[in-house]
Structure to design on (268 residues):
């Protein structure tokens, strides 16, 4: 089904396609000027600002992929599951409480009601909260495209600021998060305004026995894994309106230590 949208609030006219299957979606996405739309929260803002001017939006709402399930101890999240559904899921809150805690300060509830996890990951903005946490947790994404299906680590989805490794017409269909087991985790962010604002720095920590996995975001152009606390000095920091590079480097040092302490005390 295809409709047209007239120019409104700074938007240039575009066609809206609503495929009911991946087989219908792929040809539409391969055409020049096409753009996939899941929740559309970030996409519509970019269109209103004139950053993006797609000729066609391909809505993914009718494709399904919105389940949240436990399979062999692994959390499986359909790409079209909303962030609010993930936040309110008893399954996630019971076995992966760090995801629930992180979602509570991810933007506001109106956005979480609409935004989807697939769109959240595919947007490629380093200021988003779930990519560093899911990277630290060892999550993977299932990606479908015209040439077939593949799997990628979440941290390997990113190539730079607003750049991903998704090929044209490829779509994230599911996210898989390994069982926590005995691991402990925390995600902390520093915002310059309200608690649900974009972070100046975000740090995710997962502790498995004595081994710590630390992933930094917002201060870098993509979720970046730290080999150790000492490697912060060599980290390529990106300054922006949320803070200078020097200020953000200081925040990384402070928040990485706090996140490690928070993870160690998780559940206490």
């Amino acid at each position: 089904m295809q409709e047209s949208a007239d120019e409104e609030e700074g938007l240039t006219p575009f066609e809206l396609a609503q495929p009911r299957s991946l087989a219908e979606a792929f040809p539409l996405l391969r055409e020049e000027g096409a753009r996939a739309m899941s929740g559309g929260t970030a996409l519509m803002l970019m269109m209103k600002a004139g950053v993006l001017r797609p000729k066609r939006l391909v809505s993914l709402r009718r494709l399904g992929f919105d389940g949240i399930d436990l399979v062999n101890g692994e959390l499986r999240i359909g790409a079209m599951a909303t962030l609010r559904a993930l936040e309110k899921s008893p399954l996630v809150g019971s076995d992966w409480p760090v995801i629930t805690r992180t979602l509570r300060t991810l933007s506001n509830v109106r956005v979480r009601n609409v935004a989807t996890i697939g769109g959240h990951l595919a947007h490629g903005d380093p200021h988003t909260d779930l990519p560093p946490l899911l990277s630290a947790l060892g999550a993977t994404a299932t990606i479908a495209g015209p040439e077939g299906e593949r799997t990628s680590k979440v941290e390997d989805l990113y190539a730079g600021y607003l750049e991903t490794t998704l090929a044209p017409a490829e779509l994230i269909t599911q996210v898989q998060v390994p069982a926590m087991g005995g691991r402990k985790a925390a995600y902390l962010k520093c915002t310059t305004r309200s608690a649900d604002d974009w972070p100046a720095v975000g740090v995710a920590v997962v502790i498995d026995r004595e081994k710590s996995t630390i992933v930094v975001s917002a201060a870098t152009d993509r979720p970046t894994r730290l080999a150790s606390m000492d490697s912060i000095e060599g980290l390529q920091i990106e300054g922006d309106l949320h803070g200078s590079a020097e200020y953000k480097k200081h925040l990384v040092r402070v928040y990485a230590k706090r996140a490690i302490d928070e993870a160690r005390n998780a559940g206490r």
